[in-house]
Design a protein that fits this description.
CATH topology: Thiol Ester Dehydrase, Chain A
Structural class: alpha+beta
CATH architecture: Roll
CATH class: Alpha Beta
Helix content: 10-25%
Largest sheet: 6 strands, antiparallel
Shape: globular
CATH superfamily: Hotdog Thioesterase
Order of helices and strands: EEEHEEEEEH
Strand content: 35-45%
Oligomer: single chain
Number of domains: 1
Radius of gyration: 15 Å
Amino acid sequence: MNSISKLIPHSGDMILIDRILNCDAHTLTAELIVRGDGFICGDAKTVPSWIGIEYMAQTIAAYAGTVARQANIGFLLGTRRYNCNVSTFDVGTKLTISAQKIMQDGNLAAFECRILGANVEVTANLNVYQPTSNEHTEKP
């Protein structure tokens, strides 16, 4: 598959997902190894589990980039029902993140997301907004 940096608007150390496992018209599954570089909170041993929301958001961004074959900037509007069975993600843990589109109305979409790993189970619904290319380039 395409490199992650070509699919999402993030760059450098801000790219947290490592690879795409599969993608279809409604679902993308990605994988990452939890990093202990301290760049996104955490330390050399753990990363707070609420960073899972960003893992999910980047998986949705990769979905949008893959399906649309473009990398427009999208915005995370909110999260509902973030349920996580751990308080931190251990550095070095392999996590698999899936995002399945459950609703889209124009530029607004909702995704059902899941993160799975060794003794890790996280679920949430994320609402996102993807501006049109005109909105993306317009200046106030």
